[in-house]
Amino acid sequence: MTSHTRRRILRGAALAAAGSVVGGYGLGHYATAARAATPGTAAGGGDPFPFLEGAFAPVTEELTEFGLQVTGRIPRDLDGRYLRTGPNALGVEDPRAHHWMLGDGMVHGVRLRDGRAEWYRNRWVRSSQVARKLGEPYPGEAPPDDFACNTHVIPYKGRILALQESGPLPYELDGELNTVRPHDFRSTLEGAFTAHTKYDAVADELHAVAYYPTWDHVRHLMIDRTGRVARTTRIPVADAPMMHDFALTEKYVVIVDLPITFDLAAAEAGALVPYVWNPGHPMRVGVMPRTGGVTRWFKIDPVYYSHTLNAYDQGDTVVMELTTMPAPFHAAGRGNGGPSATGTPVLDRWTIDLRAGRVRSTRIDDLPQEFPRVNESLVSRRHRFAYAASAAEMWRAYETVDGVPPDDKFTNCLVKHDMLRSSRQVHRFPDGAAAGEPVFVPRRGARDEDDGYLLSYVHDPDRGASDLVILSAQDFTGRPLARVHLPGRVPLGFHGSWVPDA
Ligand SMILES: [Fe+2]
């Protein structure tokens, strides 16, 4: 393998599966994956690059605005920053050589304090490539697999970390979203990390499952209360599968070995995201003790597992709630510059029976939805309430490529689930609203699980810019408590967090 090829592979692999919502039907074999991402090959019919248009279109400026206009009243106990990231390609010269999930990461943040929205900022993560494109110096030497992390942004022990799977180190940001430096957990992280960590607030442990195209295993990492990788468990897997997310309970780590695997031929042919649907790779769910040890594997029918809502132990079972899509799923669609699939994401429950050795899959909700979240204090423990988002624009992007009609149920809304009552509430937004991932923030002094707020960036088509919408989680369908009017548009993106003031 030439060094150029290796760089290309690592870059593509590192950025694969930013995870997110997808649609349309792709052909799904190696050649398709390669063709999809090879410059000089255009898709036929319609707009071939929907992920660079409309609600996905990258913004071109970094803005700073103070004293934002607000409709309604911002709760005074919201003291911190709402941050959300996503791909925002900087200087795309040839859209045919671009993939949505490879866009340079941009974090959008709003600072709330004393009932006011003090500022809005949007900032690219300064990887060496972004610094170069912006004509700025990059301090020091760039780390291996350097990339402007675009998938998640989390608070961790007083720091803010922008995260990416399969290769790049996290980047630390300061409170005004400036890039500080790569973060390697006090020099204890060896190799790849992930975008979807699980923080157990009770144990004060940060868990991750990392993958990398040249590994014959994936790694479960436990970062202890000192902020160091305290334990690494290598879990052997064949074919180098993509592993965008995982689940954590009080006892177990749950990993999903998807039939989406690294493909050298696709990489050699120039695929930007050289991961393909691989029918020869059996789908299975692995359950490993949190403290390490042997992974037990359970067969499951092929499906695309997108994101974990949460998971918990229940007697001899492990219960995992997650968003799924029908198989097959293609990380690189037919020249559309993004992923494609055969249907919309829905919310499922997998009950893993450790005694019987079986997984039972049930549908919680067939309303198309993604970006599922719980009250973060309950990660790895049983929850009652859950939240998710639907953005019709996400779907229409895929329709233009593959002709799959959008589901008429798929709309612009935020969703609240009550798992105890098996019910849901929907907070609707108008056409063109493009609602993003909702994040739950507990009210100060809250005792009830859902006593708090939902924060989400929602586009306002009338204004041509986005709002930070704040809902009361206990009055979910009521009028928003506040809409903070941002000076620009927040493109449809990925994940984020509330970062409370210390
Ligand atoms: Fe994700």
UniProtKB/TrEMBL annotation:
<keyword id="KW-0223">Dioxygenase</keyword>
<dbReference type="Pfam" id="PF03055">
    <property type="entry name" value="RPE65"/>
</dbReference>
<dbReference type="InterPro" id="IPR004294">
    <property type="entry name" value="Carotenoid_Oase"/>
</dbReference>
<keyword id="KW-0408">Iron</keyword>
<protein>
    <recommendedName>
        <fullName>Dioxygenase</fullName>
        <ecNumber>1.13.11.-</ecNumber>
    </recommendedName>
</protein>
<keyword id="KW-0479">Metal-binding</keyword>
<comment type="similarity">
    <text>Belongs to the carotenoid oxygenase family.</text>
</comment>
<keyword id="KW-0560">Oxidoreductase</keyword>
<dbReference type="InterPro" id="IPR006311">
    <property type="entry name" value="TAT_signal"/>
</dbReference>
